[in-house]
Amino acid sequence: MNEITIHWTFLPHTDPEASLAFYRDLLGFEVRQDVGGGPMRWITLGPAGQPDVSLVLEPPFADPGITEEERRTITEMMAKGTYARVVLATADLDGVFDRLKSGGAELVQEPTQQPYGVRDCAFRDPAGNMVRFNEVR
User: Fold this and answer.
1) Which segments constitute the VOC domain (predicted)?
2) Number of CB atoms found within 10 A of residue 72's CB
């Protein structure tokens, strides 16, 4: 069977500079591509040493087929943090937690041992996206 990997995943952003401060400066992701400008800016980032895995921050309303009603719904969901999410993994959950908390990221959940066997924590990025971190050993 062929190996399947995740190459790109997409999250919306509303403020490119705030998103860069979160993903590049706090998480240490590399900027791989930064195209467009203003509200129509796509930023591709990824963890160092993993060139084939990328997170693309995109404008949430770039699709010209989105209606005004859909735009309002997306805006409301982003504001509540229910529109998009990503789960990342780290061997140093406490270190990541401390770095994000001291960096001013919006805390959702402190490191917790979940009943389903995962120890994790959660923050929201500047656009409201849920960013969970699972501890892997």
Assistant:
1) 5-136
2) 10
